[in-house]
Design goal:
This protein is α+β, with helices and mostly antiparallel strands and 1284 residues long. Helix content is 48%, strand content 8%. The two termini are 37 Å apart.
């Protein structure tokens, strides 16, 4: 069902909506319908959007307890059966107030089997186990369990909770451990509901014989009830009934005591009273479950560890596993199990998009087909590696085999047929696959007309890289050479160029900044291409133009190529250009007085300097790649083009100002000369007195034509070319992806030099600008990634290739003792190096040895094998292997000889040496090693390093307490899961609205931002459904805006939904999930729910300790949050512990004389004062006073407040000392609590400051954009179309 977000009215006037808002309001119009449930006369009120599908009514029926088990019915309106795939607005007469009836139909075999599958999921709910295994696209969430109650119910009550201490808010002891156990990652969950039956499954009497099929028998079931009775049930078109069959007697006729029902549930209720009771309890429990917890996610998500669960006997599950697609969702929708994925994907992209609702339908169709394709491709790739799909070319080498399953073509990530022999072999093939996926994603984001790409999924599983792709129509019936009409399939020996295909590529090439260039084949014949020659163009039997092999869509990275780094063209270098533009802007019109000859001399000097400085020395380098296909990331390309465009516009502006000044001066002189001439003509002498005028002479202004002429004159000088443009008259920067290949034509030497200079400038921009800024942020810790995954995500978002991580770490190495960013980056480098070696290690391991091999590798990786004593040559598998072997010998079993594998001969030293070799070869970084043992010195503790490796290579472990004193054993390995990469289509209009909303929020226009993000969220819900990473960020955005408005209740509601979505789509220990926990805790505390807030903060702190460890700067913020919240609850002793922990971290990272340390000292002093420890509090407060006095001066308000509290502490300390001296005379301890202890308002201010939130709600006058403001802003932007 499409969920509509109702925008809660902010306490300001609504801003005017633009045209897109008006159109969207029509799309999301709701109509109210009366829905009559199956086999009843009861009707319920439902609401559907006019562009929702009819089948969403079926989903509503399945979500209601009284009808959740009724599956075989049709939806009818006025006696006519509705097309469930039609949209509401297309059904004639279906308007507000109409009635839709669910009419029960007779079962077919398919419908009966689907009904049985639904019943099994209801009476044997296995959601938690399926989520742990990633089955059926389910994933884990613990937000509701952690909070302990429903926050939204508390919001509706609006009752402030007591401030007394609660037993369940006492900090868990493991929060104070430097290495907390792994077990708390999975909190205690409520026990599952009682079983309804002991067993239900298909009978051994299936299938029905011929004489029973002709009387309607569909299949037979056997059920063992909780009372211990065994009954056999016959499924017929009219329902289900108990028959006379016994285990050894077949009699499918109805039993003497008739138990018959239309649904299987109705029949079982008649058979078993306990079934009736327990099924009712299950229904009640399911109603309480948040729907966000059970809805499947769009893409498979796997967890790296899970608790050990008992495997139950279930014949229905067995049949579903070994008879694929027998009752699959595809069949439930009436779709054949073998779907034509390519036709579905391409047809979805060809849907019309002229209106808003057509765009939504198109985006939704693309997203859902892509989601289904990814899920199916993952299943197929795993089956390929497991050996369950026969190859098309079984006689070829294993690396060259290809597979076809469910209309998806699979190949392995190796150099098939020596195609990449000249580029690096298997290493080049492996890199090309990832590059191809990036290219496909980029082309799909552009959404070009008449140009199509393939659905592509990359699956890394058990050391293999498998690529699954949709199949071009007719490609399998033709030879590859006959199919290619554009590009080359033999590394440039023969090249095809098609003028028509080039026209199709023209628009995309311009958006991607690809330069049209000339290449030569082996016969020296020239061809003009819009893309790299490796890109291949194919026209399928469906008439569509397909572009494949897009791995060299991006600029080559000259840092990773074995080429000389030098300037190739004479021109203005970037550094000199920036200085020159800055100088012109600063000097303004004064510079116009310089002569043109002087300017030309200066330009020639700069040009000469650029030519002389041919060799360049980048500040950050990377080692040469093992292949010849290293490219820059698309994010870097866009950043570079934008950067050059800014330089170009600044240069144009400076030159225009200069030319304008010269022209105006010339016009002024002409005017003066004309006046002098007229005076002389009238006979006036020079000596004659001049009568003073009342108005000064006006400065002549340029006409519009003169201004345009100046711009044209500037452009004609080739100003744009100085900044890399291929055009003289406009800025059009493009790069040649083939510039460093052997087949590039050298006929035009200037073009070749220009193209080489562009890719060199891009590499220098990456090194000397982007990476330099990133390193600065890491050194100053203004950028604080939580773990290695966060670290690499930031790198990629800025366009930094992971191959540069070695040089980044080298720049951070001098701060490693005081900067956790170094440890995080080093953990990322070690994990990626270990991942590379692990693939070589595991790829040839037989299936029966997987668990042993993985456990052995983990022992070697984490240095356990070196500590084991029983590591003799008789058993290369370690201690665990010896134990297993002895047990088998004692039982006297004859063991089958296992195949010998290289993995068994490895040990910790060899594994660590291999990892270090990979790190040096790929990243140019020497991993620190222990001088005595020669082992890698791990930057993080065991659990964080173990987690990173498991998530990187797809290992699932059992949930237990792993530590340095125990080794991994075979039983610890629960499974191996795939690591998946795929395209991720977006809701384009929603993304634009979301980006605009974020821009308006940063400008302070809360009302407009609230309106835009609400509209974007409604759009996303229609495209993605309720679970998507964009949905999560939108909920977080709305929560933030509502908090700024002072509306904490809606803020909590949106943040809670965002947290649930984040856990489901990102993972329970993802860095985004941690931040979601923190913000929900802050909003809940602001609402008065401090007990809930503490539980959420405990969870966030635990997760950060598990993914990094205790010594992270964000832990200081978490500790302050917890300390302040505990102070609110009155638990000042535990509050003091967390505040002292935060103080310790700030001292480590910021130094003792920092403002952060001073603030922590004040907080600790107040906690001590609350416990009447005034002397100790004075020490902390005095240090804070000294820091404030040095930083801000003694007259600053902060310094005065600090000094005032210090005086109060001194006074109270004296009073306490006097009482202690006279304690024999006075029996009552005086009230030592002082008024300056933290109050609720002060606590809120501290929490807001620490977490980067505003302490006070902004006023309406400050944050509301008035109509006049908006009109002025639109005028400045030049968009007068919206003024109406």
């Amino acid at each position: 069902m499409s969920v509509q977000v109702v925008a809660s009215d902010p306490p300001v006037e609504n801003v005017a909506k633009d045209k897109s808002t008006t159109q969207h309001s029509e799309v999301t119009k709701l109509i109210n319908l009366n829905l009559i449930l199956p086999q009843t006369t009861e009707s319920i009120k439902v609401a559907l959007g006019t562009h929702d599908h009819i089948h969403e009514l079926r989903q509503m029926v399945n979500e209601r307890p009284e009808s959740c088990y009724k599956t075989c019915f049709t939806l009818q309106h006025k006696g006519k059966t509705l097309d469930e795939f039609a949209m509401v607005h297309t059904v004639e007469g279906l308007v507000d107030g109409e009635t839709v009836k669910c009419v029960a139909e007779q079962y077919s075999l398919r419908e009966a089997r689907l009904h049985l599958k639904r019943i099994r999921s209801l009476i044997q709910p296995d959601i938690q186990n399926n989520a742990q295994n990633g089955t059926d696209n389910l994933s884990l969430t613990f937000a509701t369990i952690i909070a302990g109650r429903d926050l939204e119910e508390d919001i509706s009550k609006t009752v402030k909770e007591d401030k007394g201490q609660d037993m369940d808010t006492i900090p868990p002891p493991y929060l104070f451990d430097s290495k907390p156990p792994l077990d708390p990652l999975y909190p205690e969950i409520p026990p599952p509901p009682a079983a309804c039956v002991q067993h239900i499954g298909y009978s051994g009497w299936n299938p029905p014989p011929g004489h029973r099929r002709v009387v309607g028998d569909l299949f037979y079931l056997v059920v063992k009830t909780l009372e211990g009775n065994t009954v056999h049930i016959t499924a017929v078109p009219s329902g289900f009934y108990v028959n006379k069959t016994a285990d050894d007697v077949f009699d499918p006729n109805p039993a003497e005591i008739s138990h018959k029902g239309y649904t299987l549930i109705d029949t079982l209720k008649q058979v078993s009273a306990l079934f009736n009771k327990n099924f009712t309890a299950i229904q009640k429990q399911s109603v309480k479950r948040n729907p966000y917890e059970v809805i499947p996610v769009p893409y498979p998500l796997y967890t790296w560890c899970k608790p050990r669960s008992e495997h139950t006997y279930d014949t229905l599950r067995a049949e579903e596993a070994y008879i694929p697609n027998s009752t699959s969702d595809e069949m439930s929708l009436g779709i054949m199990s073998s779907r034509d994925w390519n036709e579905e994907l391409q047809s979805a992209r060809e849907l019309p998009q002229t209106t808003i609702h057509e765009q939504i339908v198109r985006d939704r169709t693309i997203f859902r087909v892509t989601s289904d394709f990814v899920s199916m491709a993952v299943k197929g790739a795993m089956s390929v590696v497991d050996g369950n799909i026969p190859p098309l070319n079984g006689a070829d080498d294993k690396k060259c085999r290809m597979y076809l399953w469910n209309n998806i073509f699979f190949s392995l990530g190796f150099d098939m047929k020596d195609h990449y022999g000249d580029f690096g072999g298997d290493a080049a093939a492996y890199a090309a696959i990832a590059g191809d996926l990036r290219g496909i994603s980029l082309y799909q984001s552009l959404d070009p007309e008449k140009l199509h790409t393939l659905g592509t999924v990359i699956v890394d599983y058990r050391g293999y890289r498998v690529v699954g792709q949709s199949i071009i129509s007719g490609i399998l019936s033709r030879e590859q050479e006959q199919s290619i009409i554009y590009g080359s399939i033999d590394n440039g020996k023969t090249i095809n160029s098609c003028e028509k295909f080039g026209e199709v590529l023209k628009d995309s090439s311009k958006k991607l900044h690809l330069r049209q260039h000339t290449v030569q084949d082996s016969e020296d014949k020239s061809h003009s291409l819009q893309t790299s020659y490796d890109c291949k163009g194919i026209v399928g039997n469906d008439g569509r133009h397909y572009l494949i092999d897009l791995f060299r869509t991006f600029p080559p990275d000259v840092m990773a190529l074995d080429v000389e780094l030098k300037n190739h063209v004479a021109g203005v270098g970037e550094d000199e250009e920036e200085k020159r533009i800055k100088g012109e802007n600063m000097e303004g019109g004064d510079k116009t007085e310089k002569s043109a000859e002087e300017e030309e001399d200066n330009d020639s000097v700069v040009e000469g300097a650029a030519v002389a400085a041919a060799a360049v020395q980048p500040k950050f380098k990377c080692p040469p790649a093992r292949h010849k296909l290293p490219t820059l990331r698309p994010e870097l390309t866009e950043s570079f083009v934008c950067y050059r465009y800014v330089l170009f516009t600044q240069d144009m502006s400076a030159k225009f100002i200069k030319a304008k000044g010269e022209r105006e001066l010339e016009l002024s002189r002409e005017k003066v000369k004309a006046g002098n001439d007229s005076d002389s003509d009238s006979g006036c002498s020079v000596e004659s007195p001049v009568t003073p005028t009342t108005t000064p002479p006006t400065k002549p202004k340029l006409s519009e034509n003169d201004a345009k002429q100046i711009l044209e004159d500037i452009k004609s000088t080739g100003a744009a070319r100085k900044f890399g443009s291929v055009s003289d008259k406009e800025f059009d920067l493009r790069y040649n992806p083939d510039i460093y290949t052997k087949i590039v034509s050298n006929d035009n030497e200037d073009d070749v030099k220009h193209d080489k200079q562009i890719v060199l400038d891009m590499a220098l921009f990456l090194s000397d600008s982007v990476i330099m800024k990133f390193v600065y942020e890491l050194r100053t810790m203004t950028q604080r990634p939580l773990d290695a995954i966060h670290f690499t995500d930031i790198m990629h978002s800025r366009g930094i290739n992971i191959r540069y991580i070695g040089s980044i770490l080298a720049a951070l190495s001098d701060t490693k003792d005081k900067n956790h960013n170094y440890n995080i980056g080093l953990s990322a480098l070690i994990t990626r190096s270990a991942k590379t070696y692990f693939k070589e290690y595991i790829i040839n391991v037989p299936t029966q040895q997987l668990a042993q091999a993985v456990a052995h590798f983990l022992n070697c990786y984490l240095s356990y094998v070196e500590r084991q004593k029983n590591n003799s040559s008789e058993n290369p598998n370690g201690a665990n292997g010896n134990t297993n072997k002895k047990k088998k010998n004692k039982k006297g079993k004859v063991n089958v000889k296992e195949p010998a594998c290289a993995w068994s001969s490895s040990n910790s030293k060899t594994v660590h040496a291999k990892i270090c070799d990979v790190a040096m070869r790929k990243y140019g970084f020497q991993i620190p090693r222990d001088e005595q043992t020669d082992m890698i010195v791990m930057p993080l503790s065991l659990i964080p390093m173990l987690r990173l490796l498991c998530k990187a290579v797809g290992i699932q472990l059992v949930l237990r307490d792993y530590n340095e004193t125990s080794s991994f054993v075979e039983s610890d390995i629960m499974n191996m899961f795939p690591v998946v990469k795929h395209t991720n289509p977006r809701a384009r209009d929603a993304k634009k609205l979301k980006d605009l909303a974020e821009e308006r929020l940063s400008s302070g226009y809360l009302a407009e931002s609230h309106e835009l993000i609400t509209e974007a969220l409604n759009n996303m819900l229609q495209v993605y459904g309720p679970l998507h990473e964009d949905i999560e960020s939108s909920h977080r955005h709305l929560a933030h805006i509502n908090y700024l408005f002072g509306r904490v209740g809606p803020a909590v509601s949106h943040q809670k939904q965002g947290l649930l979505v984040s856990e489901r789509v990102n993972g329970i220990d993802h860095y985004e999930t941690i931040y979601s926990y923190v913000y929900l805790a802050l909003f809940a505390h602001n609402l008065g729910q401090t007990s809930v807030a503490l539980k959420l903060m405990y969870r966030a702190k635990l997760l950060l300790q598990l993914i990094y460890g205790p010594n992270h700067l964000e832990q200081a913020a978490f500790d302050i949050n917890i300390g302040m919240m505990l102070h609110t609850k009155g638990d000042t002793k535990n509050s003091q512990k967390f505040l002292e922990s935060a103080l310790k971290l700030h001292k480590k990272f910021h130094g003792s004389n920092s403002v952060q340390v001073a603030m922590c000292n004040i907080l600790v002093a107040r906690a001590l004062a609350h416990n009447a420890d005034f002397r100790e509090a004075m020490k902390y407060q005095k240090h804070a006073f000294e820091v404030y006095a040095e930083k801000y001066g003694e007259n600053d308000k902060r310094t005065k407040d600090c000094g005032s509290f210090l005086n109060t502490l001194t006074q109270k300390a004296v009073e306490l000392q006097k009482w202690l001296q006279n304690s024999n005379k006075e029996k009552v301890l005086p009230n030592m609590l002082i008024s300056e202890v933290l109050q609720d308002t002060t606590i809120s201010e501290v929490l807001a400051t620490v977490n980067g939130l505003p302490a006070n709600t902004p006023s309406k006058e400050k944050k509301e954009e008035t109509k006049a403001d908006k009109i002025e802003r639109i005028k400045e932007a030049g968009d007068t179309a919206d003024l109406d």
